[in-house]
Design a protein that fits this description.
- This protein is 53% helix and 0% strand.
- It is an all-alpha fold and 198 residues long.
- It has two domains: 36 residues; 152 residues, no CATH class.
- α3 crosses α4 and α5 packs antiparallel against α9.
- The protein is globular, with a radius of gyration of 19 Å.
- The relative contact order is 0.12.
């Protein structure tokens, strides 16, 4: 669930139930996953994705499966974004949440978006073909539709009008429905705050 979305009374009830069930983690996980609070609208877009969630989730959402990105390159990117795999800062692990929002991390995430679009996450660089992806799903009738489709893949919901307009404006007046504009639009979206929140 997102940061500070659940009220104190709900947390207290979960803690009391956990104590009553002899600290049974299975019970706690089941309770959380079945709760109305877990599925609450307020949870959407309220938690900053950790580097690994972000690095793996974006290619999965964009159906980059054949071949999949290099796990070694993704591991290097995770370290650049502050989550050096198998080397947590202490036994408690990484703090997460808003701790991932640093100047270095935001620049790193934008660089990752560009690397993904350019195909630099694979042993043999092949640029991302967002236009072909959209057409496989019978989308991409125009650039706006392609961006809407890409946003739906990346966030699970259509983009709001302001985000959609921001991306189109950033692409510029010469943008058209072609592979380069699709790649640039997807890179802009992947680097945007909307995609970096869960």
């Amino acid at each position: 669930m997102g940061e500070k979305v659940v009220d104190a009374a709900t947390l207290d009830a979960l803690a009391a139930g956990l104590r009553a069930h002899g600290l049974d983690i299975g019970w706690a996980v089941e309770t959380v996953l079945r709760s109305q609070a877990f599925f609450a609208e307020a949870n959407l877009g309220s938690r900053v994705l950790g580097p690994v969630e972000y690095l793996v989730g974006v290619p999965r959402a964009l159906e980059c499966f054949d071949p999949p990105p290099s796990s070694l390159l993704l591991g290097e990117w995770a370290a650049r974004l502050g989550q050096d795999l198998f080397y947590p800062p202490n036994v408690g692990g990484w703090k997460g949440g808003r701790e991932w929002l640093t100047t270095q991390a935001i620049i790193g995430r934008a660089n990752y978006a560009a690397a993904l679009a350019e195909g630099r996450l694979w042993a043999r660089a092949v640029p991302l073909d967002g236009l072909a992806l959209a057409r496989r799903h019978e989308r991409g009738r125009d650039l706006g539709d392609l961006l809407t489709f890409s946003a739906e893949l990346l966030t699970g919901a259509p983009p709001d009008a302001a985000w959609h307009k921001r991306v189109l404006t950033a692409l510029g007046p010469k943008a058209k429905l072609d592979a380069d504009s699709a790649r640039a639009g997807i890179a802009l979206m992947v680097a945007s705050p909307e995609v970096q929140m869960a």
